[in-house]
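Please predict the structure of the following assembly.
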Amino acid sequence: MSRVVRSNDYAGERMPRQEWSPPRTLLIAMATAIAFRSVTKRFPNGTLGLADANWYVEEGKHACLLGPSGSGKTTAVRLLQAALRPTGGSILLLGIPVDGPGYRGVRGRLGILAQGPGMYADLTAGEYMALAARLYGARPDRAVEALDLGEYLHTRMTYLSPSFQRRLALAAALVADPDVLVLDEPTAGLDRVAADHLILYLREAMRGRTTLFCTHRQDEGESLCSDVIYLRGGQVVAEGTWEEVRRRSRPCLRVAARQGVGAVMAELAELGMHGEPADGAVVVSVASPEQESGALLRRLLEAGLDVYECAPVRPALETILHEGYQ
Amino acid sequence: MIQEEIQLLFWKEVRQLTRNTAAMLSSLFMPAVLVVLAPVLALLASRTQPYRELRVPPLTASLPGFDVVHDGQGYFLYVTLPVLFVLAALLTPILSATHTLIVERERRSLELLMALPVLIGDILAAKLAANLATAVATIVPMFLVDAVVIVSLTGAGMAYVIGALFLLLTTLVASAGASLLMALLARDLRTATQLGGLLAVPPLLLTALCVVFVPGLGRFAVLGLLMLAMGCGSLYSGLRWLTTERYVA
C-alpha cells in the first residue's frame, strides 16, 4: 500500500507558532495523538467499563491496547469515537477533546476498524465504500486498490468472505488516509491463515501513522506494535514499550533438580521463598539473580537436591501483568 | 440546514429500506389496509340502507364526541376513521424502525456505521428521518384516495380532510418519538416488538378518549396536538435522559 501525504501538520494549521505560544500542557496534548486522562466509564446498569484510566499514544507510535475480554478495550474505542461519554475524566484526540465542539473536525483524521462488524445484506461493497468516502470527503480508489477489493465492489457485503469483509472495513477506515488508526480486535473470528493474511495488510496500513491496536492476543500486539498499554478490569495495569514492561518486573531464577518440582518447591518453602512450577522446573522471584543465585544454589545442593539448572529467566509478560494487577 | 453526514446516512437508509422486501411490505400493506381499504369500504358501506338507519343508543349519544354521529356514516367518519388513521400512522414507522434500528444493532452492522466519521445522534436522526419519510411517502398519497372519497361521497368537506391530515402527520411525529424510545430501551428484536406494542398503548388510549369526549372536528385538533406533544416529549426525554449512548451501550 502506498501513502502519498503524511499530514501531521494539523497543529500548525490551527496555531501558527510565530503568532501564539501555546502553554506547555497544550503542547503535550498536541504531541499526543490519543490521550485518556483519568477516564472512568460506568454504564447505566452499574458495570464499570473503565476505572480512572490514564494512558496516551504519542504521534507516530504504534500502541497495543492489550487485555482480556471485558477489560475495557472496546469501551475505550467507543469513548474515542464519541459513541459513549465518560463518567469522569477527559479524552483527547489529536489534542481536541472528544466531547468538545472541535471533535467533528478531527474525527475525519481518525480511521476505525471495528471489532467483528456485521455486513449489510442490501448494500454492495462499492456502495459502502462510496458512503465512507463521501463522509470522509475523500475518494475511495486508493484504499480499494490497496486492499485489493477492486473486483468485489459490486458484490453484496454479506456475500464477501470474512477475510474480505474485514479488508472492506479496513479500506473504509483508510479511505481518507487518516493520521490515527484504531484497530479493534481486527483478527477476531478469523482462522489463522486469514488472520495472518490480514496482518500483512494491517502492517502496511499502520506504516507511518499513529495506531492503537486493541487485542487480547499478545503475540499479535507484540509483532505489530512498539508500545503496550495493558488493561485489566478497566484499569491500566502497565504501559510502556514491551521491553520496559518486562524490565519493571522482578527477575526470576529457573531452578530444576533431578528430584523433581515438588522437592524443589518444598526446599524453597523451607527457605521462605515461593516458587511457581513451569515446564518441569520451578521459577522463583529474586531481587538480584547475580547476587542471590549462588547462595540459593549452595543451599539447595546442601539440602541434597541434584540441581542441574539454576539460571536467570525473563518472566512471561502475561505473568508480569497478572502480578501487576493483583 | 441539515448536516451533510445526516443527509448521506438518510439516503443510505432510504436505499436500504426500498431494497428490503419485508420492510417495504410492512410499510405498504398496513397503510393500504388501514388508510385506504378499510375507510373506503366503510364509507361505501355507510351509504347502504342498514347503515343509513343506524342510530346511536341514547346513552352513547349523550357523550360529547357523539354529537356529530347521527347515522352509520357519521359513526364511520368521526369514530372509526380517526382510530384507523392513528393506527396506520403510529404502527407503520414503528414497524420499519424495528428493521432499521434494532436489526442493524443485532446484526452488528451498526459497528460499520460507527466506524465512520459520524456521531450516534447522526445515525439515529438519519434512521428516524428515513422511517418518517418512507411513512409519509406511503401514507399521504394513500390518504388522498380517502380525501377524494370523503369529499365526494360524504358531506364532511375539506375541513374534515385537513383535520384528518393534521392528525395523520402529528401521529407520525408521535411514532418517531416512540421509535426512538424503542431503539434506546430495547436490546433485541423480541423486546423491541413487545416495547413497540406497549408504546402504542398511550396514543391509542388518548385516541379513544378524544373520540368519545371531544365534539365534532375538534377531536382532530385536540388529538393532533396531543400526538405532537407526545412525540416531542418522547424525543426530548429519549435524548435528554436516556441519551443516544444507550443505543450502543
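Chain A touches chain B through 33 residues (CB under 8 Å). The mean pLDDT of chain A is 87.
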